[in-house]
UniProtKB/TrEMBL annotation:
Keyword Repeat: no
GO molecular function: sphingosine-1-phosphate phosphatase activity
Keywords for this protein: Endoplasmic reticulum, Hydrolase, Lipid metabolism, Membrane, Nucleus, Transmembrane, Transmembrane helix
Short name of one Pfam family: PAP2
Annotated signal sequence range: none
GO CC field: endoplasmic reticulum membrane; nuclear inner membrane
Protein name as annotated: Polyisoprenoid diphosphate/phosphate phosphohydrolase PLPP6
The encoding gene: Plpp6
Lineage: Eukaryota, Metazoa, Chordata, Craniata, Vertebrata
Transmembrane segment boundaries: 86-108, 150-170, 182-201
Lipid bilayer topology: Multi-pass membrane protein
Family to which the UniProt record says this protein belongs: Belongs to the PA-phosphatase related phosphoesterase family.
Length: 213
């Protein structure tokens, strides 16, 4: 009415959102739209539905359980002290990755894309959340670790990088994640390797741990 006084300052703020808020909302909308368009293997009836079985094999290749089991088995079977040190640190890196991703997912609580089919390989409670992509984080972490600590020919090094990229891209194609989930996961995994390198476990820094093996 004409007799109403001016709006309180907090109400004015709600009616006039900041430029940063508008920019973030716009980026989020673009992220959701692009992620849905790129989810070409999200279902059997999707544009690339016939490639979905292959994408699910790639999904398993980046899952934590095969990596943890493979690393643990290698650690138990190796007789080389140098190989034991590398594998023990890889196991530490994988466990640290699982814990960190679970904590961030639990804090952010971003739901997975609506077009995702919840038929993922071995999930736990926090896997209902989307941010960040654990597969992308693990792919970047393992890629840096392998390139740093294994002596590989150039073609094999290229294959390792391609694997990390394909695993990450497959998360969006399967409709498991939005693009920002994957991009943040790659950055997080890349940075996480630096933490592992800084906390590197060796017979000098952790003699009791190496005595167990």
């Amino acid at each position: 009415s004409s007799t109403a006084g001016p709006l309180p300052e907090e109400d004015c703020m709600k009616l006039n959102p900041s430029f940063l808020g508008i920019a973030l909302s716009s980026l989020l909308a673009i992220d959701l739209w692009a992620s849905k368009r790129l989810g070409v293997c999200a279902g059997e009836n999707s544009a690339w539905g016939s490639a979905r079985p292959l994408m699910k094999v790639i999904e398993v290749s980046g899952h934590g359980i095969p990596w943890l089991l493979g690393t643990f088995c290698g650690l138990c079977q190796t007789d080389s002290s140098a190989a034991r040190e590398v594998l023990l640190n890889l196991l530490f890196a994988l466990l640290l990755d699982l814990v960190l991703v679970a904590v961030v997912k639990g804090l952010v609580k971003r739901r997975r894309p609506t077009h995702n089919k919840m038929d993922m390989f071995v999930t736990i409670s926090v896997d209902k959340y989307s941010f960040p992509s654990g597969h992308a984080t693990r792919a970047a972490l393992v890629c840096r670790f392998v390139l740093r600590h294994l002596v590989l020919a150039v073609p094999l090094r290229v294959l390792v990088v391609l694997w990390a990229l394909i695993v990450s891209i497959s998360r969006v194609m399967l409709g498991r994640h939005n693009m920002t989930d994957v991009l943040f996961g790659l950055v997080l995994g890349y940075a996480l390797y630096s933490v592992v390198e800084y906390c590197w476990l060796s017979p000098l820094s952790a003699p009791a741990l190496f005595a167990l093996w």
